[in-house]
């Protein structure tokens, strides 16, 4: 295998680990939130502002990954005729080079649109704006309520993978994703367990784990429903924090606690 191929595979794997960090990267603090912690501030102090900034940084980092590969080619001594490869190379290289330049420009344009009128058009602000009422006149008022509840110790946070986590506070159900925070208010939300998946932990043992897909559907107009996927062992904690009953269809069977697996 040539040095060029090894270099390309290494950068591809590194990019994948940045986009979808494995456990080792998370433990080492090599994730976007960890690397840009000084820019993002504290999630506990200002939850909504933290995630607005996090989504902006995430979009920026993702957009420069292809361009980073081109820059690495120029900087590496493995490639002596990179400019010739791009200018006179195949159609693939020309498209890749053009795309790598266009993505950061498009990302900056999108970030600029998000920042108009104090982030009024950011996906998180748009989601929160759907919950405005007599008590909350705009999305910032809703954000203040969420910030206050997130600071309390009675919330639960369930990380479903390295990119997504589910948060339940006294009144809110939140699903944090790379580019937005999906939101539902418990007062008008319905939760239904859609399915339970059972996975064997190891081929050498009979141990298994179950994951639940729960649909969260808001009764408010224009509020999109979303699905949260959690380990069955976290179901009891979520159920205790949610003010409304979680509907479990008769055809969905799972162990609500670890002890039930051995009964």
Automatic annotation (TrEMBL):
Keywords: Membrane, Transmembrane, Transmembrane helix. One of its GO terms (cellular component) is endoplasmic reticulum. Belongs to the TMEM129 family. Its main location: membrane. GO terms for molecular function: ubiquitin protein ligase activity. The chain crosses the membrane at residues 6-36, 56-79, 91-111. It comes from Zophobas morio. One of its GO terms (biological process) is protein ubiquitination. The keyword Flavoprotein does not apply. The keyword Transmembrane helix applies. It is a multi-pass membrane protein. This is Uncharacterized protein. It is found in: Membrane.
